Amino acid sequence: MVQTIFSQTSYEIPLTQKAVTFAKTHGPHTIETAWPVTQPKDLKPGEVLVRVVYTGVCHTDLHAWLGDWPLENKLPLVGGHEGSGYVAFIGPPLAGAEPSTLKVGDAVGIKWLADSCLHCEECNKGYESSCAKAQNSGFSIDGSFQQWAVSYAAHLTPLPAGFPLEAAAPILCAGVTVYKAIKEAALLSGEVVVIPGAGGGLGHLAVQYAKAMGYRVIAIDSGAEKEKLLASYGVTDFIDYMKGDVVKAVNDLTGGVGAHAAIVVASGAQAYEQALQYLRPHGALICVGMPPNGDIKANVFWTVVKSHRIIGSYVGNRQDAIEALDIAAAGKVHTTFTIEDLSALPSVFERMKALTLNGRIVLDCQ
Ligand SMILES: [Zn+2]
Ligand SMILES: [Zn+2]
Q1: 300 alpha carbon – ligand 1 mean position (Å)
Q2: Are residues 117 and 85 in the same domain?
Q3: Beta carbons of 33 and 18 less than 8 angstroms apart
Q4: Ligand located closest to 172 CA
Q5: Residue 46: left (phi > 0), alpha (psi -120 to 50), or beta?
Q6: Under 8 Å CB-to-CB from 51, ≥6 apart: which residues?
């Protein structure tokens, strides 16, 4: 689809817009054509109105709609947290704060972490996604499955100049999440990273980030199609988990000593158990993929003696988002995605549930 919305110095802001909403958890979606647009005069301090052009669809959006998590979301809800578009209007600054450096027409990204207090210990340490006052796009506030979204000046991600908005969308959640997860392993150049689930939506990005960061990648997934996709990113070490012993295969590929880190983006419990068996001493198990009701079974003796690090990694902070986008804009990370119309969202969820989606879907909100 052709992009028709561009950077402008001012935008004509309509009273109503297209949006996809649901009023009840797992209830029907409504394709709204006259959903209200928050008007400039109604923006609160710190808020920004964004003209959304594209939005990715993430598994988290499906979980939110299905009510899979022990957390309550806003209802009715406009989901979506991989939005890319332009600043259309900037609300007044927060009391005592400097005016935002954003300008109308700037290309920006809306990510899962929409806002946080920026004053608590977590925020001060750069863990703003763990802030007790964090707001999440498409969950606690309305997200990017609409044309005009309210977000927050302090947390919008500036997009690299010239980087296509449709390519930026999936980086804003999937890309940031895997990039941050790899950073958490604190590796040195040339060290070995195993990525279980490498051929999936998160995995195909994780593989490219790990390579861009200078690590040796061992990819785990299944099937010739995934192997071919991964080979296109220059991955030569591929383990098909359906064919034989994964732990032995990793050990064989690492001269018997195992890997420095496993970035588990697969959502099967087995991937975690295997990782603990092929990590070398001081190796890091980075947990990203979430098996339903999943527990990690780690033997305490071996965890201590091998000094294994088991680390949960949850999205990324503002700087992680900027770095992840910069690496992608430098041409080192490519997303495989298909563009569909915003109104296709219910059908995208059905295909996501049925596991028949290939690559990510980016919705056109123009
Ligand atoms: Zn997401
Ligand atoms: Zn905070």
Answers
A1: 32
A2: yes
A3: yes
A4: 1
A5: left
A6: 5, 11, 85, 86, 87, 88, 147, 148
36 and 147 together in one domain:
yes
Sign, CA torsion 246/251/254/255: negative
pLDDT of residue 180: 98
Alpha-helix residue ranges (DSSP H) falling in 23-88: 59-66
- Expressed as residue numbers, the domain containing 228 is 176-312
Res 160: pLDDT: 98
Q: How far is the CA of 341 from the centre of ligand 1 (A)?
A: 19
Give CA torsion, residues 12, 13, 18, 21, to 10 deg.
160
Contact 202, 56 (CB under 8 A): no
CA of 60 from ligand 1 middle (Å) equals 5
Write down the pLDDT at residue 63: 92
Q: Is there a single domain that holds both residue 103 and residue 153?
A: yes
Query: Domain tally for the chain?
Result: 2
Specify whether 131 is located in the same domain as 184.
Answer: no
**224 is written with which tokens?**
């010739």
117 contact partners, CB below 8 Å, separation of at least 6: 123, 131, 132, 133
In this structure, the answer to whether residues 149 and 36 fall within a common structural domain is yes
pTM above 0.90, yes or no: yes
111 Cα to the center of ligand 2, angstroms: 17
Handedness of CA 260, 171, 358, 137 (dihedral sign): positive
Residue ranges, the chain, pLDDT below 70? none
Q: pLDDT tens for residues 56-113?
A: 999 999 999 999 888 999 999 999 999 999 999 999 999 998 899 999 999 999 999 9
As a whole number of angstroms, the distance between CA 327 and CA 330 comes to: 5
Q: Which of 22, 41, 256 is nearest to 146 (CA)?
A: 22
- Contact (CB, 8 A) for 77 and 142: yes
Q: How far is the CA of 84 from the centre of ligand 1 (A)?
A: 14
Q: What angle do CA 323, 275, 192 make, to 5 degrees?
A: 50
Residues having C-beta closer than 5 Å to ion ligand 1: 58, 60, 173
**In 3D, which of 305, 204, 334 has the Cα closest to residue 263?**
204
